[in-house]
Amino acid sequence: MTRQPAILSPGEATEYARRHKGRIYGVAVTLIALAAVFYGLALVRM
User: Fold this and answer.
1) 8 and 16 in contact (C-beta within 8 Å)?
2) Taking Cα atoms as reference points, which of 20, 46, 43 lies closest to residue 35?
3) Is the per-residue pLDDT at 5 higher than 60?
4) What b/e readout covers 16-25, taking b as 16+ CB neighbours within 10 angstroms?
5) Taking the chain, what is the end-to-end CA distance rounded to the nearest angstrom?
6) I want to staple 12 with a disulfide (CB 3.0 to 4.6 A). Which of 5, 8, 21, 36 is the partner?
7) What are the distances in angstroms from CA 10 to CA 15, 20, 26?
């Protein structure tokens, strides 16, 4: 596993942030969707 250099040029830093922001949003949306589904199931069961 190759480590990235700690010092990035501004272009590389913005590209890195943009690439990983999508993954973070994807995980957040997935967790919120799962929470909503479980909440709905709990309401139906009651």
Assistant:
1) yes
2) 43
3) no
4) eeeeeeeeee
5) 49
6) 8
7) 9, 15, 25
What does the alpha-carbon distance between residue 27 and residue 32 come to, in Å, rounded to a whole number? 9
CA 22 – CA 28 distance, rounded (Å): 10
Largest CA distance in the chain: 55
pLDDT tens for residues 14-33? 887 787 788 888 899 999 99
Three state DSSP letters for 2-30: CCCCCCCCHHHHHHHHHHHHHHHHHHHHH
Residue 8 amino acid letter: L
Q: Is the dihedral of CA 22, 27, 31, 37 positive or negative?
A: positive
Strand, helix or coil for residue 43: helix
